[in-house]
Every structure is written in C-alpha cells, then in structure tokens.
Amino acid sequence: MEATVQQQNPIVELANRLITIRDEKEALSEREKELNKLEEETERQLFELMISEDLEKFTYAGRTFRPEVKTYASIRAECKEEAFAWLKENGYGDLVKEQVNAQSLTSLYKELDENGELPEEFAQLLNVYQKQKIAVRRGRG
Questions:
Q1: Where does residue 125 rank: exposed (0-12), middle (13-18), buried (19+ CB within 10 A)?
Q2: How far apart are CA 13 and CA 140, in angstroms?
Q3: For the chain, what is the domain count?
Q4: Residue 60 CB: number of other CB atoms within 10 A?
Q5: pTM of the full predicted structure?
Q6: By C-alpha distance, which of 73, 50, 59, 33 is closest to 133?
Q7: Mind listing the pLDDT tens digit for each residue in 33-88?
C-alpha cells in the first residue's frame, strides 16, 4: 500500500533534502574530476617548463615549487606468484603478505637498482613507472 504524502510532510522534506544532498555530491564529484585533470595538466606544463629553464626550485606566493620524479614499482598481475617466490627465495619474504606492500616494493626496487644489484629476472616481473610531480610546500624556500 503506497502512502500519499503532502508537501509539508516531514518525509517529503527529508526526501527532498536527501535528493538535494545526493545531487550536490554528484556535482562535486564531477567537479573534482575536472579539477584533477586540470591540476595534472597544469603540473605537467609547469614541470616541463621548469626543466627546460633548468630551474631547480622557485618560491612564489609563500610556496616553494620544485620538480621531482617519483618512482613506483608493482608486480605484474601475470607474474604475481613468480615474483612472490623470488622475493621469498632472496630474503625479502617479509614483503609478501596476501599482497606486496607497494611502497616497500618500490623502496626495494630503488635500492637494488641504485646499487646495480637489480636482477633482470626480477625486473621482468615488475611494472615500473615514474610520475612527474611538482612538490608544493608552504613556508620559506
């Protein structure tokens, strides 16, 4: 049995409020996606310009801007078991849980790579990418 509700009914008022809240959240989510794309493009452009100008860092509006490249490593999905086995056999089994901690794996990758100790057999099991970023920090430069 469906109830007929009047406009001043608290149920209708709450339903209207819920609709408004959900519509506003959806609009904010869309705007956040737009802003994220705009931020990424602007950051890429600033990074490229700073590199081409050979600019290590600069301070503007109370913030220090510095181009940096972050490295991330993850295990290829099709190589998961083989990579886990390699980690365990080579003394890095503490990284292996149900999943390998991405930050710890990245640290291991960077350490092995920087020391020239990265075995090709292990490197082939990983997806490695670098993300260009601009570090922004409040305060003095």
A1: buried
A2: 51
A3: 2
A4: 9
A5: 0.59
A6: 50
A7: 999 999 999 999 999 999 999 999 999 999 999 999 999 999 998 998 999 999 99
C-alpha to C-alpha distance for 124 and 36, rounded to whole angstroms: 32
Mark whether 77 and 105 lie in a shared domain. yes
| Residues 90 and 71 grouped into a single domain | yes
Measured in degrees and rounded to the nearest 5, phi and psi for residue 63 equal -130, 145
Q: The tokens of 2 are what?
A: 């469906």
Task: Encode pLDDT of 98-133 as tens digits.
Answer: 767 899 999 999 999 999 999 999 999 999 988 887
Per DSSP, 117 falls in state: -
Q: Hey, what are 45's tokens?
A: 């452009």
Domain region containing 88: 58-138
Is 85 found in the same domain as 23? no
Please state, in angstroms and rounded to a whole number, the distance separating the CA atoms of residues 128 and 17.
47
